[in-house]
Structures are given as structure tokens and as C-alpha cells.
Write a structure and sequence with these properties.
The structure is a single chain. With 378 residues, this protein is of the alpha/beta class. The chain folds into two domains: 7-250, Type I PLP-dependent aspartate aminotransferase-like (Major domain) (Aspartate Aminotransferase, domain 2), CATH 3.40.640.10; 254-377, Aspartate Aminotransferase, domain 1, CATH 3.90.1150. The chain has helices at residues 7-13, 55-68, 79-88, 104-113, 129-135, 158-167, 180-183, 221-234, 240-250, 253-272, 291-297, 313-322, 342-346, 366-377, and strands at residues 72-76, 95-99, 120-124, 142-146, 171-175, 193-197, 211-215, 277-281, 304-309, 327-328, 338-341, 356-360. The strands form two sheets. The protein has a seven-stranded mixed beta sheet, sandwiched between helices. Helix 2 (55-68) packs parallel to helix 9, helix 3 packs parallel to helix 4 and helix 12 (313-322) packs across helix 14 (366-377). The radius of gyration is 21 Å and the shape is globular. The model has no long low-confidence stretch (mean pLDDT 97). The chain binds pyridoxal-5'-phosphate (PLP). The site of pyridoxal-5'-phosphate has 15 residues, from helix 3 and helix 4.
Amino acid sequence: MKKSAHLDTLAVHAGRAVDPTTGAVAASPVLATTFERDADGAMSRGFVYSRTESPNRAALETALATLEGGREALAFASGQAATAAVLQALAPGARVVFPDDIYHGTRHLVKQEFGRWGIVADFVDFSDLTAVTKALAQPTALVWIETPSNPRLKIADIAALALLGRAAGALVVADNTWATPLLTQPLALGAHIAMHSTTKYIGGHSDVLGGALIVGHDCPPETAARLRSWQKLGGAVPAPFDCWLLLRSLATMPVRLRAQSATAAKLAGFLAAHPRVERVNYPGLATHPGHAIAQRQMASGGAMLSFEVRGDLAAARAVAGRVQLITRATSLGGVESLLEHRKPIEGADSPTPDNLLRLSVGLEHIDDLIADLQHALG
Ligand SMILES: Cc1ncc(COP(=O)(O)O)c(C=O)c1O
């Protein structure tokens, strides 16, 4: 298969091959934790122990590296484990610059846990490049991009931020969970590393947890080696069956995401015109402040949106309480639509507005989703 093949083709074929011994077209999970040595003690088949490498993980990593255009990929047990590995790979006392709107788990991880280990985190509005430039005037080890951001769907200009970050001598990492390689290619835009919660669109069915780092061709080799070391020695690796599920689901990711994004665009239009909705955060809308950048770096507006209902926290809770088809649940990227009132779960220190509801758009029919939201909004 040509590396230049289209992403839909790569999603189906990368990391997969017909089994040479049985002819099986679909791979099976290899659950073994340990692998036989050769008579001379060598490991000519490449596998030693499933914490350090496993056949299903190797296949998943090959596929993810291919889709993101990276040198190699490292699979982890969750998105948070992948993020933690990046922070663990920094020197003690390093200063990191993060966006102000960001997945709250990432914010808590870097502030609460890595703060205790001396990592200093600054949170900056990434849509304001002057503010970022100012933040980077101090020595910075890492610039962490998340675009679209969770939950306000702010758009960060990856190419501009990568240039600034690189000029400051920082490692540039982009959390590409919400866009996926189908919509955005952060490594081509200048990031050193693309990060994923594979739990979301790559898994796509709300039944497997995972994370990944895809290391770009010009990522400093010592960083890549340290990340691999944290993966193997830290041991927060995905089980073979989880890797198998993720690779299986990856094949349909482009088709799912394209359909989900088309529905999300229509829902964003419906919500923007609704009198009970104060604001819709969806980068596909021409009114979104990051729309022009999104058009440059995203193939579509994606399948996530958030909206602020007229009223306060209680008004938003009431709307969430009335959905019947859409499920009230955290997480995103699955085939079923999920709605979440974010503020109560993010905590008092979160900048998320009280009246914001986040919607992960699934594969249901648009008319049924509109009817459900119409009813919920009252
Ligand atoms: C943008 C983003 N990054 C990272 C994560 C964390 O991933 P996981 O739950 O797989 O640890 C999430 C989870 O919602 C997310 O939305």
C-alpha cells in the first residue's frame, strides 16, 4: 500500500495484513504476556513481554503513526496516561504553557499532580497570539495545544503556535482528540507530537479506553526515547484486546466522523437560530471567532459542539434533564449522542460558563436529534 493513499484507505489497511500462516483476513487479539526466546536467547520475532511490546499494540501504533504522518506512535492505557507521559518526560521544574480552555482532566493533572513535582503551568488564551508570545518570553519547555478546545471549542492556530513554540525552544504537542487525523494533521502543521484520547473518535463506540502519542519526524530523539521509556517502564499500556478493538474501530472512523460532522453542522445551525440559546460554539459556523483558522486547518467543523442556554446553571441543568433520545453522560466520540452540563463536573475553578451544555453528536438521524433538542429546550 502506498503511503500516499487517502486517509480512508490508510484507516482500513495501515497496521493490518492477512495472517501468513492461516490466511485470516482479520487479526485476532494475542493475549500472551510473554514470548518465546530463540535457542541462543535472542528474540528474533521481536516480542519479549506484553508490557514492553505486543503484536496488537504494534499494529495499532503502526496504523496511528501512518494516519498522523508520524515517525512512530506510542499507545497508552488512556488519554490521560499519554498526557502524563509527556509531562513525566520533562525535566523537574520545567515551565509549560497551556491553553486557558482545555479538557479539565489535563488542567487538573498538570496543576495538581505535576505542580507537586515542580512543573510550573501557565494558562493562556491561545486565540490571542500576542498573549502567547508574551508567555513564551520566559523559558518554556512545552507548549500544549488543544484544538478545538474542550468544552468551548476555541480554535488555536496550530501553524502559528508551532512556529512560536519552536522559536522559544519548546516542545510543541497538539491534543488532536476532537479533530482526529481526518480533520486536522498537527504534525504537518508544525507540532512535534500529536496526542489522542483514542477513547473518543478512534474507539468510536464508548466501549474502550485508550490514548496515544504520535511522534513527528523532527521530534528531538531524546524526547521520543524518554516517552518510549515512560511507556515501557511506567507501564500504563493498553491491553491487547483494547488495541484490537481500537484498530478494528479505526477502519470506520473516517466514515463515522464525516456523517457525525454533517449532522453536527446542521444541529449547530438549528441551535444558533433557537430563541432559548444564547450562544453556539461550533467552528463550522461562520460566526465562530476561529472560523477562518478552522477552515484552514480542519476538513470540517467536526462532530462536537457546545451551546449556552439562556439563563443560569439551573436553566442548563433543566434542559439536560429533558432530553430523551440523547444520553446525559460524559465522554464523546461514540456512535450515540451524548449531552453534558459541564460546569458541575469541572469544578468551581473552571472557566466554563454555568449555562454551557456540551454535545457529542452521534450517528442518529438529524430529524430525531432536532426533535429531542426542540423538546428539551422547551
Ligand atoms: C481533549 C481531550 N483530551 C484528553 C482526554 C482524556 O482522555 P481519557 O479519558 O482517554 O484519559 C479527553 C477526555 O475527555 C479529552 O476530551
